[in-house]
């Protein structure tokens, strides 16, 4: 017990002296070695046990066990709420613990969540960060996984002061302490089965992904949901693309106008189009007709295209277009009907 207290004191002092540095992982070589060790232990021991536990244990039982350990962790949250001077939140979390412990049968039923009472999670590492203590270098703890120097000291402090499972060990119930702690580890690993598989399948470097995700999550928890901007910047930034150069017309045009693709004025474009247009309508198109007599050919001054278009017109429209029709009779005959109107139309005398 005295050795544990000395280790706790050293961890807290180191955490208090920690400060934020540009390099968050100066011990990357050591951390990667511990990460590989944890991965091997997890692959051959913890993960198979968690899968068997999930397959054998019914879902309501697993949910009740998770609620039980979550309810025990509320005591740690209340202590750190008080250390951070969050008195209203401490009162709410204490109420959650009382309700779930009594009406929820020692926390196996989360009655407080059904009553819409919010759940918070605070630890001593967050408390140190709340009062301005830097996270220090990134660490990977054996079996426990990702952490930082500050969070490792905070975990040791919470384990000794506000973890109810530790009191079983202090009272001499070592076997019960070990059994409960083992069930806690198995339950937590079961909750991370899908997340661990997703990290292994989706990320190129699972170690780097786990490190960045943990640092962002802890920074968000310390600042009550706000992630610092420097932690959201990607290591690989896209190259700056050169903006497209604007033409002289686009530069001279006002902001509220639309510039055409051509720099020339519209009138010039229209003139160019008119001059370059091919006279398709007046081209000589051979028509299979009988040759005209010399007298008729001399009198005919119209182009072949015009002659062909006139030949295609109906006789009646041709007559009307050449000479206006004469309307005889009064207005009553015209209104009488179509037949009477047609009867009043006469062709002009030749």
- In order across it, which strands form the biggest sheet? 1-2
Number of strands: 4
As a whole number of angstroms, the C-alpha radius of gyration is 46 Å
Shape: globular
Derived from helix and strand composition plus strand pairing, the structural class reads: mainly alpha
Quote the distance from N terminus to C terminus: 136 Å
Write structural notes for this entry:
With 350 residues, this protein is mainly alpha-helical. 62% of the residues lie in helices and 3% in strands. It has 19 helices and 4 strands. It has helices at 2-17, 28-56, 59-83, 87-102, 111-114, 124-130, 149-161, 164-170, 174-191, 193-202, 206-222, 229-232, 248-252, 266-276, 294-299, 304-311, 315-322, 331-336, 338-343, and strands at residues 138-141, 145-148, 326-327, 345-346. The strands form 2 sheets. The protein has a two-stranded antiparallel sheet. It has a two-stranded antiparallel sheet with strand order 3-4. A hairpin with a 3-residue loop joins strand 1 and strand 2 (145-148). Helix 8 (164-170) packs antiparallel against helix 9 (174-191). The radius of gyration is 46 Å and the shape is globular. It starts with a helix and ends with a strand. 15% of the residues are buried. Residues 234-285, 291-309, 316-321 and 323-332 have low confidence and may be disordered.
